[in-house]
Amino acid sequence: KSEQLTQPASVSLQSGQRLTITCQVSYSLSSYYTGWIRQPEGKGLEWNGMKNTGASYYKDSLKNKFSIDLDSSSNRVTLKGQNMQPEDSAVYFCARVIVTQTISRPKQKPLRA
């Protein structure tokens, strides 16, 4: 089953204003993280942060700029940005995040007879 994420086609702001983008998702917000990524024109993707009902993580350089709010009752995830500037102009994507965990086992010392 493919999951659905829906967000506005565009948002217009003036310099110094607050950004609010809401993403409507079809999955349980407690089961997955939802992340926000942005891509300025002509540049690569930049990870902003991700959140589920239990935890949130932000890129260090952006954690004072952006916050992510969840509304579990309506399955909405909202990215909020403050004091937006021309350099923040970008395509902003919401995305379901699948977190994988790497477990490293301690190396065993060889047995000597």
Secondary-structure element string: EEEEEEEE
Strand content: 35-45%
Please identify the structural class as seen in this structure.
mainly beta
Remind me, CATH topology of the domain at 5-9 and 30-97?
Immunoglobulin-like
Q: How would a textbook summarize the main sheet?
A: 4 strands, antiparallel
Mean pLDDT over the full residue set = 91
CATH superfamily of the domain at 5-9 and 30-97: Immunoglobulins
CATH architecture of the domain at 5-9 and 30-97: Sandwich
Q: How many strand segments?
A: 8
Overall geometry: globular
The proportion of residues forming helix, as a percent range, comes to: under 10%
Tags for this entry?
single chain; 113 residues; mainly beta; Immunoglobulin-like; four-stranded antiparallel sheet; 0% helix
Secondary structure elements and their pairing?
Layout: E1 5-6, E2 19-25, E3 33-39, E4 46-51, E5 56-58, E6 66-71, E7 76-81, E8 91-97
Antiparallel strand pairs: 1-2, 2-7, 3-4, 3-8, 4-5, 6-7
Keywords: Adaptive immunity, Immunity, Immunoglobulin
Domain Ig-like: 1-104
InterPro entries: Ig-like_dom (IPR007110), Ig-like_dom_sf (IPR036179), Ig-like_fold (IPR013783), Ig_V-set (IPR013106), IgHV (IPR050199)
Can you describe this structure?
The protein is an all-beta fold and 113 residues long. The protein has a domain at 5-9 and 30-97: Sandwich (Immunoglobulin-like), CATH 2.60.40. The protein contains no helices and eight strands. It has strands at residues 5-6, 19-25, 33-39, 46-51, 56-58, 66-71, 76-81, 91-97. The strands form two sheets. The protein has a four-stranded antiparallel β-sheet with strand order 1-2-7-6, with no helix packed on it. The chain has a four-stranded antiparallel β-sheet with strand order 5-4-3-8, with no helix packed on it. A hairpin with a 4-residue loop joins β6 (66-71) and β7. It starts with a strand and ends in a 16-residue tail after the last strand. The mean pLDDT is 91.
